[in-house]
Amino acid sequence: MDYKDLLQTHFNLEITELSLLDSHFGTEIYMAKTKHEKLFVKKLPSYMTQASNEKAVTDFLAGKGMKVPTLFTTNQNKSVLQLDDCLMTVQTFIEGKTLPLNTASHDFLKASAELLGKINFFLKDYPNLPLRFGKDFFDRAAAAQKCKGYQDELKKLADCRDERTKNDWANQIKHLNRISA
């Protein structure tokens, strides 16, 4: 079954166009068009179980007045479609800019930092969730612990033929080693 059929079957969406926007760490992000709107479709590795938290977090931020995407629910009223080999989510498309890695101007970085600060401010009242990235992510001990977790994830991919995903994880491990050194 192709993605358009999956989206029709599980989300009742008639997709007229589907194009890949980005791919990293085993995640694929698509822009989908229907007759009436644009959507984001995310295909996630099956081990990304924290994806089920996304709807609650975005609904919380929307309640605080933040402009965040709205997650669609499946016919079974779930925000994450669980398939045999992956997870999928669908959300509203918010127009904006996506830049290649390490190419943002100072002004763009400043605006991004201000937005992240605002999100962080609102999330201070949100209950703790089991997330990959938390407030202590750049702490050396936390980075070393994350590095160990990432190494475990990379071991799970030993039989995977997706070299790009393996390289992405290996690069994350190198980055975390720099932080924890």
Q: What is the topology?
A:
Blueprint: H1 3-11, E1 17-24, E2 27-33, E3 38-45, H2 54-63, E4 81-82, E5 86-92, H3 106-123, H4 140-156, H5 163-180
Antiparallel strand pairs: 1-2, 2-3, 3-5, 4-5
Quick structural overview:
The protein has 181 residues and is an alpha+beta fold. The chain has helices spanning 3-11, 54-63, 106-123, 140-156, 163-180; strands at 17-24, 27-33, 38-45, 81-82, 86-92.
Could you please describe the fold and organization of this structure?
With 181 residues, the chain is α+β, with helices and mostly antiparallel strands. It is 40% helix and 18% strand. The protein contains five helices and five strands. The protein has helices at 3-11, 54-63, 106-123, 140-156, 163-180; strands at 17-24, 27-33, 38-45, 81-82, 86-92. The protein has a five-stranded antiparallel β-sheet. A hairpin with a 3-residue loop joins strand 4 and strand 5. Helix 4 (140-156) runs antiparallel to helix 5. The model has no long low-confidence stretch (mean pLDDT 83).
